[in-house]
Design a protein that fits this description.
single chain; 5 helices; mainly alpha; 46% helix; Arc Repressor Mutant, subunit A; two-stranded antiparallel sheet
Length: 130
């Protein structure tokens, strides 16, 4: 399940994608347009800035803007930053230890296929598509 944090991160990113790419947009404006608490958005944009998806500028004329073109961001990238893994089961998480039951697990191929579908779906959609 995608949490509020992930959904709001997508809303912030799509909002910024619709703005002038050179202008820093104040968080207050984004919060108002999106109907989201400015305080809550602060924690989300902090992660996005730290990971280089957004550039932040303090002071007068400050705010946030994208660091790349909208077509260069995927929904999957944004969700993984805010949600952590998108793996549908723990044994498919990146870096997970090999499960001792995997060779005999009758459901593993199903989970692997579903996980692949989820990844292809979210990593196949860009901000420009939204």
């Amino acid at each position: 399940m995608i949490s509020t944090k992930g959904r709001y991160a997508l809303r912030v990113m799509t909002d910024l994608a619709e703005q002038d790419a050179e202008r820093f947009v104040p968080l207050k404006e984004i919060a108002k347009r999106q109907g989201i608490s400015e305080k809550y958005l602060e924690s989300i944009v902090r992660v996005l800035v730290k990971e280089g998806l957004l550039k932040g500028l303090s002071g007068k004329g400050g705010g946030y803007r994208l660091t790349r073109r909208p077509k260069d961001y995927t929904v999957g990238e944004i969700l993984e930053l805010t949600e952590g893994t998108l793996a549908v089961v723990a044994c498919l998480e990146a870096g997970a230890e090999e499960c001792e039951r995997k060779p005999a697990c009758r459901t593993f191929p199903m989970w692997e296929r579903f996980n692949s579908m989820v990844r292809e779906f979210f990593f196949g959609i860009t901000l420009a598509d939204l």
